Amino acid sequence: MKERKFWGWGYQDQVLSNEEDAAIESLIAAHFSLDEVPTLPIPLAEDIDLPTPRVKIPQTLEKVLSEDHLERLNHTYGKSFPDLARAMLKEFPHPPDLVAFPDDQEDIVNILDWANQNNIAVIPYGGGSSVCGGVETYVGDDYSGVISLDLRNLDQVLEIDTTSRAARIQAGIFGPALEDELKKSDLTLRHFPQSFEHSTLGGWIATRSGGHFATLYTHIDDFVESTTMVTPTGVVESRRLPGSGAGPSPDRMVIGSEGILGVITEAWMRLQNRPIFRSSCSVEFDNYQKALNATRLISQSGLYPANCRLLDANEAFLNSAGDGSKHLLILSFESADHELGT
After folding, report:
1. CATH number of the CATH domain containing 293
2. Domain limit, last residue, from 228, 247, 273
């Protein structure tokens, strides 16, 4: 796996050129009427001291637990602005004592059993893209230690049911790898959150994520058929059914649980045929209220565009999609079986 930045989004080899840095500094200075934009150097892992781990790796788990310095840095924070600010300032007072890399569900059961017996907190970790503190490893003084449990090795599409358009998928697979695998069967999950490249299926389910292509199938809920979750007291697995009215759905407990109840290990997911016909356009508005009204009318029309996203003038400007004078509505339509009219 490529080495991820512990101080920002993406991978260590993905950095801006000097020209790109200068262009962004000029943009920020102009937008906020600044004479200059102070900058910080990229922090180096070897320049950051971390507290000594409070717990020792047991011999039975030495193949799946790590004290690696860089991994502890990578698993301390998510990717919110406060997270990145603290990382850039080299502030890592509460890193995980250990990082776990289970190879299968049995490893996760063993890790949770050992942690439960020794009063060690366990924080499930998918891609680390959380922006609401979901993977932060500061848990207070009630625990003897904390483990960040990384699911990167549970990254396979285990089974595809092409007749029902569904697949059994492990929770640690990242968005691009998942779509690449489904493409072999001309299928797609069709779920694209903003963190798509750096987030996992398990993370999407645990956070009840929403995707950009989302006027019909908005949240990950719409795609989940069944889930498997390891808890401190056992494995919870829901049944894969086309529909059920037999009481509360157990999947509703899992979706959006934020890792509180256990570790999601796999799920059966509903799929769609991969679209081959596409049409898109952008519409500019001088008046934001009119832009909002147009967006509402489209969403209520039953047309179900693949994408319907409104950028206000400032957001459009900051994303190089305009000069800051117009509000921008982005529309796109897709189909797997028929051409689209213009």
Report:
1. 3.30.70.3450
2. 273
Judgement on whether residues 217 and 118 belong to the same structural domain of the protein: no
Domain C-terminal end among 256, 273, 290: 273
Could you tell me if 282 and 268 lie in one domain? Answer: no
Query: What pLDDT does residue 215 have?
Result: 75
Q: Are 216 and 167 in contact (CB under 8 A)?
A: no
Q: For residues 163 and 78, state if they share a domain.
A: no
- Beta-strand ranges (E) seen in the chain are 65-66, 98-100, 120-125, 145-150, 157-161, 166-170, 187-188, 224-231, 234-237, 263-270, 272-273, 277-285, 307-311, 327-335
- The C-alpha atoms of residue 330 and residue 321 are separated, in whole angstroms, by 10
- In total, how many domains does the chain have? 3
Report whether pLDDT(214) > 70.
no
Three-state DSSP state, 65: strand
Q: What CA–CA distance (Å, rounded) separates 234 from 252?
A: 18
Question: Over the stretch 262-309, which tens digit does the pLDDT of each residue have?
Answer: 999 999 999 999 999 999 999 999 999 999 999 999 989 988 898 899
Burial-class residue 325 by CB neighbours within 10 Å (0-12, 13-18, 19+): exposed
Q: Rounded to an integer, what distance in angstroms lies between the CA atom of residue 107 and that of residue 150?
A: 12
Q: How far is CA 145 from each of CA 7, 117, 263, rounded to the nearest angstrom? A: 23, 12, 18
CATH label of the domain that carries residue 81: 3.30.43.10
- Full domain range(s) for residue 230: 157-273
23/136 same-domain check:
yes
Token reading at 210: 């929403």
Q: What is the DSSP letter of 200?
A: B
- Domain assignment of residue 6, yes or no: no
Decide if 204 contacts 193 (C-beta within 8 A): yes
Q: Phi, psi (5° rounding) for residue 213?
A: -90, 85
Give the separation between CA 119 and CA 146, rounded to whole angstroms: 9
Q: Which residue has the tokens 């990950």?
A: 220
At 199, is the pLDDT very low, low, confident or very high (cuts 50, 70, 90)?
very high
